Amino acid sequence: MRTSVAILPLILAAASAAAGTPALAQSHAGHAMPAPVRQTLPEGCVARSSPTADASRTGTAGAPTCPTGAVPVRLPAPAHDMSTMRQTQPASASASPHAGHDMSTMGQAQPAPAMPAGHDMSTMGQTQPAPATASPHAGHDMSTMGQTPPAAAMPAGHDMSTTHQAQPAPTAASPHAGHDMSTMAQTPAGHDMSGMAMPPDVPTSADNPGRPPETPAPAGATSGPTNAADLLFNPAEMAAARAQLRIEHGDARTTAVIIDQLEAAFGDDEDGYAWDAQGWTGGDINRLWWKSEGEGSFGGEVEEAEIQALYSRAFRPFFDFQTGLRQTYRPEGDRTDLVVGIQGLAPYWFEVDAAAFLSNKGELTARGEAEYDQRITNRWILQPRAEVVLSAEDIPELRIGSGLSSLQIGARLRYEFRREFAPYVGVEWTRSFGETADFLEADGRSSEDTRLVVGIRAWF
Questions:
Q1: What's the rounded Cα separation, in Å, for the pair 93 and 110?
Q2: How far apart are CA 397 and CA 337, in angstroms?
Q3: For the segment 245-302, what is each residue's pLDDT rounded down to a tens digit?
Q4: CA angle, corner 233, sides to 228 and 236, nearest 5?
Q5: Pairwise CA distance, residues 71 & 57, whole Å
Q6: How far is CA 420 from each of CA 154, 257, 292, 457, rounded to the nearest angstrom?
Q7: Does the pTM exceed 0.85?
Q8: Using CA of residue 28, residue 33, residue 38, residue 39, what is the dihedral sign?
């Protein structure tokens, strides 16, 4: 009998467990308890522990009144208005609170993510006027920010790793607070770039004031000998080595002879010959230059011949300053002139040679030449050429008038068997002006002449 009474509570407990209704409480083991009655919640309310519970709606407009232990259900997030997402918006005075959001999947159909607890999205789909000072957290309920929200899918592009950390209150709320900017490809306006790495200070031909200032050399860099190797080796031997190095790396001495024209001329009045040659010896900066040119008639005497000895110094990469002496031989009288001029390669590959001459009798004249090599093929080259002669005064003895004395224009077509040797044919027109033309006509000669020329051009 006692055994039956002892096991009776165990039998009743097993029967209640099988029926799904607990009959015993842990605090009252062995005592039969009545089955609890399941509470029915009003519509729109869920248990506080439910994943869809939203305690922030309690007591708000439109929220249902829930009994103790229940809270209003979370409202579904409204669809975002993306109609103006791809339109270019004018830059506002206050930065948009959504700057830096990842919109890479905006155009794809995405399921509506669960929104974090505490965000009020009821007005997201409505168009709001731009406030005078846009707050990045306008419309956000921050009352539960310190609480741990339930697990929910976060919007793409938001970095919430530091949401629950204590942050110092900024003077002005930053519109980019909490946003992940690590993948931004462009720099938004208004960002401080003072800490960005500057480009290296590489000297260029451009005037770029944005380069960082150069750090002055330390004091020790300017002390001691100019060449530190002289402290270890014989200075005389090192000086000889440096001189040889300069010769091998740009300070070499070169010599060249260029016969630009060596030709026969056939004109209306008489046939003749002419030459124009020049050459130099020296380095890239300083050279000794010589020039010679002249003309005459077959069976007659030389009408004019000259030779120049010049010192040439490069003052630009493609131009040399030249000065020296010129000796001229003419039947009318010889002259010795002081020469000052320039020679070089002008833009667009025009070779120019201009000089002023002051004779031993105080006569000032000038001459300018220009020519251009138009390469038709690798071997056929057309060379237009022009020469002008000026005089500051009339020189009756030399049959030269003041002003523009003469103009000579020609073109020569050559064929280069080798670069150093090329025969050519061409035509040349000469015209005298002013008093020079009067002098020639008084001597029975024409002031205008056209000649066919045949010759060779060579250099070595």
A1: 32
A2: 16
A3: 887 887 788 999 999 999 999 987 789 999 999 999 998 899 999 999 999 999 888 9
A4: 95
A5: 8
A6: 80, 10, 19, 8
A7: no
A8: negative
